[in-house]
Amino acid sequence: MTVVIGLTGSIASGKSTVSLMFDEFSIPVIDADKIAREVVRPNEPAYRDIVEYFGRDILREDQTLNRKALGEIVFNDQAKLDTLNRFVHPKIRERMIELRDAYVGMHEKAVVLDIPLLFENNLSTLVDKTIVVTVDEETQIKRLMEREEFTRSEALNRIQVQMPLKEKEALADHVINNNGDKYDSYLQLQDILRELEVI
Predict the structure, then answer these.
(1) For residue 2, what pLDDT band results from cuts at 50, 70 and 90?
(2) CA pair distance 59, 2, nearest whole angstrom
(3) Neighbours of 36 (CB within 10 A)
(4) Angle at the Cα of 133 from the Cα atoms of 96 and 165, rounded to 5 degrees
(5) Distance CA 194, CA 95 (A)
(6) pLDDT tens string 55-94
(7) In angstroms, rounded to a whole number, what is the distance separating the alpha carbons of residues 190 and 199?
(8) Three-state DSSP class for 174?
(9) Which end of the chain has less neighbouring CB within 10 Å, N or C?
């Protein structure tokens, strides 16, 4: 039986780094962010809904979505952000379930659903077990400042609009503490996968 694992974290917690590690164990990963980009390609239903609602000013010359322009509109207007999410989230969910079920049908030992907002969007029902990648706030701030060239207050703002990592830890079946180096996180992941009897 396939074990469906939900992987989540927060901004600059190192979730993407851990997500790549599943390849070492030959476990397929379904990435919600990648699917989010696919479902808004020209001629996809979500793309048509977005263009109809937000107008053609949010398109680039090649008719693809200008994500930055769209972001500037929705992140200052909760109602518009909610509308955008209503267009996009069901399509992402559909595609993820379709891919998950295909891997289950192929009798994979495990499959990972990499979902940044796993708990916030109540998607843990799609998986059997959850793993949260966590770091302490200071590490998170430091990484964000380095990676995005944010000031300390900009980094803090980004962190504080998300569900606190402590809350995610309490909801998760397993926690990977990513304060150390990559190898340390890899060993923690390996232990979890052994416990789940998928390696």
Answers:
(1) very high
(2) 41
(3) 17
(4) 105
(5) 28
(6) 999 999 999 999 989 988 998 898 999 999 999 999 999 9
(7) 8
(8) strand
(9) N
CA 41 distance to own-chain centroid: 19
> Above 90 in pLDDT, residue 157?
no
**Percent helix, strand and coil across the chain, each rounded to 5?**
55, 15, 30
The pairing of beta strand 29-31 with beta strand 3-8: unpaired
Backbone angles phi, psi at 31, to 5 degrees: -100, 115
User: Alpha carbon 129 to chain centroid distance?
Assistant: 16
Q: Which residue, 90, 88, 96, is CA-closest to 112? A: 96
- Kind of pairing between the strands at 3-8 and 129-134: parallel
In angstroms, rounded to a whole number, what is the distance separating the alpha carbons of residues 42 and 59? 10
Q: How are strands ordered across the β-sheet holding 174-177? A: 29-31, 110-114, 3-8, 129-134, 174-177
What DSSP state is assigned to residue 163? P
- pTM for the model stands at 0.92
Mean predicted confidence (pLDDT) in 101-114: 98
